[in-house]
Amino acid sequence: MTSKQVRIGVFIPSGAQALDVATVDVLAVMSKEYLGIMPMLPAHMKELAPSVTVSYITTPEQGPEIPLTANMTIKATHSYEEPAAAPGQFDVIIVPGPDPAESFEEGGLKWLRTQFETPGVDILSVCTGIYICGAAGILEGKKASGPRGLQDDLVKKYPGVKLVGEKYRWVQDGNLWSSGEFRSSSLFRSFQPTAIAGGITNGNDLMAAYAKACGRWAQPVAELGPVLTDVGDRGQIYGESPNRFMLGMVWTIIKGWFASVGTSSKPEAPKDKAV
């Protein structure tokens, strides 16, 4: 049965990757509000869509200004302590990826754990958002994805989770959905093949798959959204092995080195003499 309203909360305790946060728009375009302003769509498609609200939740310590990558800042709509962010106020909680070395405030972790335990609430973890989920204790006994290059680190920190991020872009286990992505910092720290492959936009694939499977959206709307945003057409299983992707990356870096050498070895153009 489809919903008349879908209430989404995006939980960002301290900061996040801008592209991870932007994945929420894949769901937001499947709203009555968005589709209602598209004149080319027939009325029945707009009527099928639920009303979608999006809130941005952070910690009291962080305050309303939330830093993202690419020198972006967004304003939080709520602190997790506010009644408007209490359990039962959301249907979906999206957890975008922070710096995996971040420490997370216990109050926010308890809030996420309570949301996870609230019937009818789905948790959607994007990339390193899995670290917040792990710190909140909601990965225990679960199958989960996560950054392909950080699987070993995740296993050490959260041994109770079954990690499948080497193979799957995204995976569902009950009300926990998680996606894995590429982290360039892993590549240049360790330069291991497992640090590569995937893409920083795998969260988009997760959102498209979630909308089609969760039952909150009518199927025609869940199929229209990914068409409008041009996402969700990649398979759940990676089509390229880590080793093959690694070779491609290494070759690109080598070509860049040759290009830089060629540029630096070019003689400077003669300067015009003063008349």
UniProtKB/TrEMBL annotation:
InterPro entries: Class_I_gatase-like, DJ-1/PfpI, INH-QAR. Residues 60-184 form the DJ-1/PfpI domain. Signal peptide: none annotated. Pfam families: DJ-1_PfpI. PANTHER family: ARAC-FAMILY TRANSCRIPTIONAL REGULATOR (PTHR43130), DJ-1_PFPI DOMAIN-CONTAINING PROTEIN (PTHR43130:SF7). This is DJ-1/PfpI domain-containing protein.
